[in-house]
Write a structure and sequence with these properties.
The protein is mainly beta. The protein contains two helices and 24 strands. β16 (205-209) and β17 form a beta hairpin. It starts with a helix and ends with a strand. Residues 1-33 have low confidence and may be disordered.
């Protein structure tokens, strides 16, 4: 696999540091200022987002599995890939070296892969029953979580983008426990891909995972209620907390045994945010609107990362 999403974000930081956030949705008279909002034009549900090249992003329509493409400098994102019937789109990550977009398939129990150059569906993999929730990229493949099982799934990917094999990695230790109906959620990697970090919704916590052995350990941060998607850069992890309508910025210690919440990022425009993508000093956060099932407007909200 090419360099990870996290590493690409650092490389792109210099080019993006001067980025001025758009004013797609200005505040009306008498309202407090709102963060910039990008509409997923025509979407009837939403959940996942991935940083693409430069200021491009991809976002998923949860129920149909369709993929939207947008730019954080614009006010709208448009439908980009019409997914085959019966798919869902939850967490997702993009690999610039291969043009591949990896998508967690939710209740389908599957992982899906799309070529963003051709818009073609190039891979479909049955992982396990449950809810395939999120994905992260490392040098040796794409790693997926299942909210109903204490295990991870690694899809091996060559440097040329060949999808080479699938491995189930049973977790050991506290992250493997399933105390609630919804358990493992977000996933990211740190320390040059040597360590995975998973979010555990039922335990309100983050855990490190050794990708070779599946052994897990608690990162002592205090409770992180409603933890959902996570994204890391260096020793900083941004934790999306959906029904709290906030993102906590957590600074990890040197051995990843603990972390401190340094900042809580909120926005008047948040409405059950679930996942985020990082663009330099800007977070692009998806509103899932689980509190409004009939919502006919779904958005990406841009907020300062505040690192």
């Amino acid at each position: 696999m090419r360099p990870t999403v996290q590493r690409r974000a650092v490389i792109g930081f210099i080019a993006l540091v001067a980025l001025i956030l758009p004013t797609a949705v200005p505040a009306s008279a008498g309202e407090s200022p709102r963060d910039s909002v990008i509409v997923l034009d025509g979407a009837t549900s939403a959940e996942g987002i991935a940083a693409g090249r430069g200021t491009t992003f991809y976002a998923g329509e949860l129920e149909s599995g369709d993929i939207f493409k947008g730019d954080i400098r614009d006010s709208k994102a448009t439908r980009f890939i019409d997914a085959p019937a019966g798919r869902q789109a939850v967490g997702m990550k993009f690999d610039a070296g291969t043009n591949l977009l990896f998508v967690a398939g939710g209740q389908t129990g599957k992982a899906f892969v799309y070529n963003t150059g051709t818009k073609e569906a190039v891979g479909e993999f049955t992982l396990a029953p449950g809810f395939i929730n999120d994905v992260t990229l490392t040098r040796d493949g794409a790693w997926f979580t299942n909210s109903a099982r204490g295990e991870l799934y690694r899809l091996q990917v060559s440097r040329e983008g060949e999808l080479e094999g699938l491995e189930t990695v049973p977790l050991k230790g506290p992250a493997a426990e399933l105390p609630g109906p919804f358990n493992l959620n977000g996933i990211t990697s740190v320390q040059g891909d040597r360590v995975l970090i998973v979010a555990h919704s039922a335990k309100q916590a983050l855990f490190t995972v050794d990708p070779d052995t599946g052994q897990s350990a608690l990162i002592d941060t205090g409770a992180l209620p409603n933890v959902d998607g996570i994204i890391a850069r260096g020793k900083t992890v941004w934790v999306v907390q959906n029904f709290l309508n906030q993102v906590s910025r957590v600074k990890l210690n040197h051995d990843l045994s603990s972390g401190e919440v340094r900042d809580v990022i909120t926005s008047d425009s948040f409405q059950i945010p679930t996942t985020a993508a990082l663009f330099g000093n800007t977070l692009a956060v998806v509103n899932a609107k689980f509190d409004e099932p009939a919502a006919d407007l779904h958005e990406v909200v841009l907020v300062p990362a505040r690192e």
